[in-house]
């Protein structure tokens, strides 16, 4: 488990073993001595880039800041890092932030996280413009974090709670959400091409100008949601709809099968191809507000 108190104690321990005062360590990191004091008291948390710098200054591996890390003498890791930099050796740090508690941390611009944040709690953290492709999250609680303009393509997000997060202009291409709760998030201009939602509760979120292509929703609860713009080659199967509206939407080759409460879904200024229209009709959709693409502008279904 990672938390600010634990990290603060480890910073203080390594600083003393290196015979640094708080002022001397602060000078090396280009911050104030007061900031170092706050770290060591557990009142604030260094961001990941600062932790990486601290590991080099204090002669410890970055994993040293994890509670599960087997302690080594400061200086040992420095020699190991130097060895890693030899020809033929990988220079990638072997660190793991899973099972951690992170508050107000800045992880912007990170790359290659993969499984390094599973089973962690994150609140008010920043991941702006980060390369999170291939990320695996399981049993995470993520609240009020900013992922704007990040790449989450090919990610797996499972058994997790996502609330009040910013995903503006993120890409989720070919990602999967399984048994997650998603509420009050901003997905404006996000790309969900190829994304799969399965057994997800998806409510009260902003989907303005999001991209829906080859996206599938299965066994998913959709509540207080507004879909706008094109929906192509998508699937809605065994979903439950509450206060859902499709507005200015053009449906192409999209399947609606065995959905619940579909009669109350609202369609405003929508268009559909013949196949999609047939699926909408079989789901007992209210066809007012839907026009067949082949018969514009004649409205049918009254």
What do these coordinates show?
The protein is an alpha/beta fold. It folds into two domains: about 5-85, 434 Repressor (Amino-terminal Domain), CATH 1.10.260; about 105-295, Pectate Lyase C-like (3 Solenoid). The chain has helices at about 5-15, 20-30, 35-40, 50-60, 75-85, 275-280, and strands at about 100-105, 120-125, 135-140, 140-145, 155-160, 160-165, 175-180, 180-185, 195-200, 200-205, 210-215, 215-220, 220-230, 230, 235, 240-245, 250, 255, 265-270, 270, 290. The strands form three sheets. The protein has a nine-stranded parallel β-sheet with strand order 1-2-4-6-8-10-13-16-19, with no helix packed on it. A seven-stranded parallel β-sheet has the order 3-5-7-9-12-15-18. It has a five-stranded parallel β-sheet with strand order 11-14-17-20-21. Helix 2 (about 20-30) packs across helix 3. It is elongated. The termini are far apart. The model is unreliable at about 70-95 and about 295-300 (pLDDT under 50).
Element layout with pairings:
Layout: H1 4-17, H2 22-29, H3 33-40, H4 48-58, H5 76-84, E1 101-103, E2 121-123, E3 136-138, E4 141-143, E5 156-158, E6 161-163, E7 176-178, E8 181-183, E9 196-198, E10 201-203, E11 212-213, E12 216-218, E13 221-228, E14 231-232, E15 235-237, E16 240-247, E17 250-252, E18 255-257, E19 266-268, E20 270-272, H6 274-282, E21 290-292
Parallel strand pairs: 1-2, 2-4, 3-5, 4-6, 5-7, 6-8, 7-9, 8-10, 9-12, 10-13, 11-14, 12-15, 13-16, 14-17, 15-18, 16-19, 17-20, 20-21
Helix pairs in contact: 2-3
């Amino acid at each position: 488990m990672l938390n600010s108190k634990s990290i603060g104690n480890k910073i203080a321990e390594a600083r003393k073993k290196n015979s640094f005062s708080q002022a001397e360590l602060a000078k090396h990191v280009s911050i104030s001595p007061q900031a170092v004091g706050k770290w060591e008291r557990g009142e604030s948390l260094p961001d990941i880039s600062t932790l990486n710098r601290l590991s080099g200054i204090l002669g410890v591996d970055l994993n040293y800041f994890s509670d599960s890390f087997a302690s080594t003498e400061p200086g040992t890791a420095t020699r190991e890092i130097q060895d890693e930099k030899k020809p033929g050796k990988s220079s990638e740090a072997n660190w793991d932030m899973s099972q951690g508690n992170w508050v107000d941390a800045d992880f912007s611009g990170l790359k290659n996280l993969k499984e390094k944040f599973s089973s962690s709690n994150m609140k008010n953290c920043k991941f702006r413009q980060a390369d999170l492709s291939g990320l695996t999250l399981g049993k995470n609680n993520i609240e009020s974090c900013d992922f704007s303009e990040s790449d989450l393509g090919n990610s797996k997000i499972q058994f997790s709670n996502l609330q009040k997060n910013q995903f503006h202009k993120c890409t989720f291409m070919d990602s999967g959400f399984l048994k997650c709760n998603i509420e009050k998030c901003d997905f404006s201009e996000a790309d969900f091409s190829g994304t799969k939602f399965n057994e997800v509760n998806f409510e009260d979120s902003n989907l303005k100008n999001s991209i829906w292509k080859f996206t599938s929703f299965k066994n998913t609860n959709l509540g207080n949601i507004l879909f706008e713009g094109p929906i192509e080659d998508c699937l809605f199967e065994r979903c439950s709809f509450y206060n859902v509206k499709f507005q200015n939407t053009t449906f192409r080759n999209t399947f609606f099968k065995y959905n619940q409460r579909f009669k109350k879904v609202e369609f405003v200024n929508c268009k559909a191809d013949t196949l999609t229209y047939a699926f909408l009709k079989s789901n007992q959709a209210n066809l007012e507000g839907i026009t067949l693409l082949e018969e514009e502008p004649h409205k049918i279904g009254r």
